[in-house]
Amino acid sequence: MQITISFRGKSQKPPVTVDLPEDSTVDDLKKAIYKKVPKFYPDRQRLSFNEKTLQEGKPLKEYDITNGENVVLKDLGPQISWKTVFLIEYLGPLLIHPIFYYFKSQIYGENFEHSQMQKFAFYMIMTHFGKRELETLFVHRFSHGTMPFMNVFKNSFHYHALSGINLAYWVYGPWNASGTLNSAREEWYIWTCVAVFVYAQISNFSTHITLRNLRPPGTRVRKIPYGYGFELVSCPNYFFETVAWISICALTNSLAAWFFIVVGFFQMYLWAIKKHKAYRKEFKDYPKNRRAIIPFLV
């Protein structure tokens, strides 16, 4: 069958026609367009028919697309893989925190000994972002392959500026150095914060493994997640992420840390609500007792 492709937005290209077998999918159509117009690789295309967005993997006949129909292509612009974006986001704090921690005399203009609080905070933060990098490389399977390239700068700001420069500057400064009133922490208090942090990180990793195992490699299969954490909320990974950062906030008593988690939790809350609603809409047998992100509450 022949399908006409019209271009919408900034792309002022004349329509093109592609030939496809009757049983083709949306993916097949995107590949055919790419062969005709190499600029528009599949991840750069958003296709719609009768004002309805075409989903990857779906057969064209599901949208009643037949011979001679017109499909509209919107150019999403240059794309970058989600994996690359995540690696860039988490690399920022991994580079920024050691600079503030190890070059304190150059940054703060004086030499001082780090307190126990500062030492534990440094290793907790480095562990957190190191774990995130490893999960991005070896655990996560992304339902969406790419995102607009310019978004990498917006996404990275949250981590590079808020949990990177702003957090590192205020936590590792001389006002928190050994012997100062700000750094005074009971031994039991420090280890309680560390214990909560370790618990939350292990729990967060467990939920990521559960989500990974739901989706076979190279597919976009969606299933109802079950297991540790998922019995109470739809997004326990966000909940445990929040608990881990609250332990860092409690340890450092830093306004910069609290500001980062407030901003981060607000974003995770929005994502969790969206995912929770999507689960309930897609799966009629989705457990009714689950909340979105906070057990028993939200």
From TrEMBL:
Signal peptide: none annotated. One of its GO terms (cellular component) is endoplasmic reticulum membrane. It comes from the Eukaryota. GO terms for molecular function: oxidoreductase activity, acting on the CH-CH group of donors. It comes from Gigaspora rosea. GO terms for biological process: very long-chain fatty acid biosynthetic process. It is a multi-pass membrane protein. Its main location: endoplasmic reticulum. This is 3-oxo-5-alpha-steroid 4-dehydrogenase-domain-containing protein. It is found in: Endoplasmic reticulum membrane. Belongs to the steroid 5-alpha reductase family.
